[in-house]
Amino acid sequence: MNKTLIGSAAAIGLAFAGAAFAQSSMPAPTYAADGKMIQPKDYRTWVYLTTGFDMAYAEGAANQTHSFDNVFVNRQAYDGFLKTGVWPDKTVMVLEVRGTGGENPLNKKGEFQGEVRGMEVHVKDASKGGWAFYAFGKDNAPAAALPRTAACYTCHQDHGAVDTTFVQFYPTLRGKMPAGARE
Ligand code: HEC
User: For residue 126, is pLDDT > 80?
Assistant: First the structure.
């Protein structure tokens, strides 16, 4: 390899390192010019918290079709929570809803996960007045925050173990709850 090649290889390496750094230090929630939240794209590489199966919140709710919900949180927020027991500003929690995978000749019993049915996001952002919920549809278009009167806020406020989040349902975190948190 001649000098120019080595030089440019090094420059490319630096450019990659720079891009990786910019990504990891980037604040997680991003918004469009009109203030709507842009749907997180890379949440599947974040920290996995749990999978709920057929969870329903209404008394006597019928299970018409099975569903899974997978919860992820951005890495910076997870690390912050482990250290302090507090969700830091810019925490983004994603709840991805999936149906079942359907028929598969190998599978004689039980269910596996199918396609994404929808996504709900819970974001702590002081610049937006604190925690807010967003629901993204199949078109993946940016979403406005759900109104404060939505039932989401009441249930999370009244029953979430830590700061309006359901840490009591997240196996790697429920042992790390601050003293006095709801069980
Ligand atoms: C009656 C209670 C209840 C209501 C109403 C409710 N949730 Fe939740 N939510 C939960 C529970 C319980 C979990 C934990 C899910 C699990 O363990 O898989 C949860 C988890 C979540 C999470 C994962 C992050 C977190 O905060 O723990 C998001 C995002 C979320 N809900 C969004 C919503 C949105 C959006 C609405 C309103 C459209 C809503 N929820 C309404 C009970 C509720």
Answer: yes
